[in-house]
Amino acid sequence: MKYSKSEILDACKKMCKNTLMETLDIDFIDVTDDTIVARMPVTPKVHQPDGVLHGGAMVALAESVGSAGAFIFLDSKNINIRGIEISANHVKGVRDGFVYATAQVLHRGRTTQLWHIKITNEEGALVSMVKLTTLTLQK
Does the keyword Hydrolase apply (predicted)? Predict the structure, then answer.
């Protein structure tokens, strides 16, 4: 990493201002050379009508984390990142606490990137498995 962990996490927090990520209370908590991790609280504002975490909120979390990773791991000064394909399999319901999304880069191309994003609950059990493809656009 060309920047320190704290510099990267601070930049991610600043990116969230006045966005869907702020609305969902997504908090970036860790970064390594090929992963980035964020957490999101599971509260009634992200529930389905029956009181479990909405799948759309998990997909929003996954795309946010994968896109932030692409932005961080590439030359972020001259690019914009767009998610161009996302696929999610939700396997476990969550009613409260936090969910954690760990995005790992599988392909770090100059134009496209492929991300594997694992969403888990506080006990580490798999909640959703997501595949995200991002596109890099020059500013």
Answer: yes
From residue 71, give the alpha-carbon distance in Å to each of 41, 65, 87, 99. 24, 10, 20, 22
- Digit-coded pLDDT (tens) for 57-115: 999 999 999 999 888 887 667 888 999 999 999 999 999 999 999 999 999 888 999 99
The tokens for 129 are 């498995």
CA distances from 116 to 12, 56, 90, 95 (A): 19, 17, 14, 24
Q: What is the pLDDT of residue 110?
A: 85
CATH of domain 5-138: 3.10.129.10
Q: Is 63 a catalytic residue?
A: yes
Catalytic residue (one of 63, 85, 122, 123): 63
b/e burial code for range 92-110 (CB count within 10 A of at least 16 → b): eebeeebbbbbbbbeeeee
Q: What is the domain partition of the chain in residue ranges? A: 5-138
pLDDT for the residue 18: 95
Q: Could you tell me if 15 and 22 are in contact, meaning their C-beta atoms sit under 8 angstroms apart?
A: no
